[in-house]
Structure prediction request, 647 residues.
Amino acid sequence: MASFSTSTAASHYPNLSPKLLEILGPHLPKSSPEFDPSTLSNYYNYKVHDSTLNWEVSFQDKKLKGSVIFDIESLHDSEELILDSSYLSISNVLIDSKKIPFELKPRQNPLGSPFVISYPSTKSQRFKLEIEYETTDNCTALQWLDPAQTDGGKLPYLFSQCEPIHARSMFPCFDTPAVKSTFNYNIKSTLNTLVSGLLVSKDTTSDAKHTVYKYKQPVPIPSYLVSIASGDIVGASIGPRSTVYSEPSFIDACQYEFKEDTENFIKTAESLVFKYEWKDYDVLILPQSMPFGGMEHPNCTFATPTLIAGDRENVDVIAHELAHSWSGNLITNCSFEHFWLNEGWTVYLERRILGVLHGEKHRHFSAIIGWTDLDNSIKSMGETASRFSTLVQDLKDGCDPDDSFSTVPYEKGFNMLFAIETKLGGTKEFDPFIKFYFDKFKYGSLDSYQFLDALYGFYSDKTDLLDEIDWQTWLYTPGMPPKPDFDTTLVDQCYKLAEKWVSIAKSNPEKLSESFDKKDIAEFGSSQNGVFLDTLLTYQDQDGFKWNSENGKLAISVMSEKYSKYATSHNAEVVFRWFRLLLTGEVKESYPKLADWLGTVGRMKFVRPSYVLLNKVDRELALKTFKKYEFGYHPICRAMVKKDLGI
Ligand SMILES: [Zn+2]
Prediction:
């Protein structure tokens, strides 16, 4: 590496103020956007114009078999082409139909094996690179579910999750968000197949055993947004440009959950940014073993079935995944060091959508919940907080982007954008920049410095105002950022009700029954119920109060009667928190009920803390329950719970 020179680096960012340049100076990269440290490829030498994936889905061998074809142009003279790969079995490399020698170099964990193709090329040379290969049992992107792990129980199921750096275990590629291309998919499968793209055709093979699905993604996307799902999947309309997909037994419930809000979300997002460019917006609800909340695959968000609550209360996850259609998918971080550009912006847009549809109070309420999450998340990091709680991350030592994953890019990112909005005078002043920014960088990949340069350029008459923002703290200081002024109206109701319960339980327990009524929570949405139940728990061990004391248990018993809707709720966000209170109060009748519930959910957010709780009060039951359901969980979830239980 040549020595750093501020003058050349700064020339990429003509709009930054001298004050900001001084702060950014030591961090400014020499190239713009900054190079991605989480790839072993030499992507910066090439441009990929188009990519084609030809796959056969083999449920029998649990493998994808086939080839990938890239239409590539050399940007510089280059001796060899290096792609990312991880646990792939590669059989042939062809360039313009001629066989070419290649070498898979030794693995460099966690980034995989550099896949070196000996092909000298000159600047502007364009060629077709075809690689024939199969995935292997070690593939980290694909989950192959046995029929027993699905809701239907009869057919197998496949789904992928490539973000951040698992695409390289599904197909050899420049596995960096800095490289984007259009995609074509030709997929042969025995079961219905969805991908991140638009369906072109669906034809049965001559032996009538398979179907060939042709899809096209005309908008350039990075490798981590490539996806596949194949299984007993059916669809139902949830709007003029939206379909929800799931296993057949679940489809009516999914349709009910989303048909009211999806188109409103899209229209609202369009009014905040600009037209939705991807044509269709669909949602695939995966089997219960989906370990995460959602993943923003273009055209087809993958989501957890815990969103299906029967009360349309968890749909904000859909607002989030939809918002990614602009932030993340149209404009992408150039590396996971700048992941906040994807997630912070998406949380910001998600909350703006909620604000438009339900009022500013709701935007602020959601932000307060996020603030608490951020605080908890940074506290739980322990020593690693000094490294992983900064907004701009440093992954240059080849560290696994999965290790740096946390609430920080989401909530610190949101709060910084909210601070900028506030500093500029509010949404009216900030809104024109949203449209400008997304238009300026669409189809591209960028770093935090390009974002700041665009901001300072757009508000060139407000440099002094922007300079008042403490950029050093926001971008590079670990820990909590400066706290904004939130509107606390909605959250205060939850705090007050919780305080009333605890204070009466402590001093006048005989008055509990007459002091509360089901009307107290009649107007609460699931987030307010969540905050109320979370707040109750914060009183445990405060000033000698315990939920497992005589008074605490009495309060829980009165609450079960007055707020009976908690016990009968189908909303996982509520059910989980209700169980948490019952187990903290050592209400023994609830233990087997929680054990049964653990056979119906697979999202790690609920499964892991539930086992920890159960283990605390009844280890035998926790172990028995895990033994019964462990193979219904996703392998990542199974491994984490094992760690949590110490087995
Ligand atoms: Zn997201």
About this structure: The chain has 24 helices and 22 strands. The first strand starts at residue 46 and ends at 58. Residues 1-6 have pLDDT under 50 and may be disordered.
